[in-house]
């Protein structure tokens, strides 16, 4: 992308502000994990608590580990800021699908292949995450391979909500789609 996705504009807010505003009303706590808290000082994040990555440069596994370390909940619904089309209905579907006995609930892309975000992760999973990180492993897929995952299969109409931003072209495409949907409503 060439820049920090969290701070790209999405409407009137940055990506991270948009997501904090989306999930804040749905959950008892909202945590934002960043590489540097200083970057968030001027942002409007509501009641979200901001924490720096436990270890920087180790990707989403380290960020989730950090979040689970600070979370007060038995399980946490986890998002990345580069999926701005996720909506409250999808979040409710994910949360409603959760049940005891699983380490995680994730969206299934193909049999046995999971999309880790958005997902629900047990706080106790932080121990396996820490073990993987200590061994130099950064892969969310590796964590999921070692965990009991309840897969949620989405209908085709909801798949579009999982569009994420890896390239600047993705960002502009998402902005255009957002504008097109707004005009249709």
Summarize the structure.
The protein has helices at 15-23, 59-70, 88-97, 126-134, 140-145, 156-159, 168-184; strands spanning 9-10, 13-14, 31-34, 49-52, 75-78, 104-110, 113-122, 149-152.
Folded structure, characterized:
With 185 residues, the protein is an alpha/beta fold. It has one domain: Spore Coat Polysaccharide Biosynthesis Protein SpsA, Chain A, CATH 3.90.550. 36% of the residues lie in helices and 20% in strands. The protein contains seven helices and eight strands, in the order E-E-H-E-E-H-E-H-E-E-H-H-E-H-H. Strands 5-7-6-8 form a four-stranded mixed beta sheet, with helices on both faces. The chain has a two-stranded antiparallel ribbon with strand order 1-2. A two-stranded parallel sheet has the order 3-4. Strand 6 and strand 7 (113-122) form a beta hairpin. Helix 2 (59-70) crosses helix 4 (126-134). The longest helix is centred in the last third of the chain and has 17 residues, at 168-184. The protein is globular and about 40 Å long. The model has no long low-confidence stretch (mean pLDDT 89).
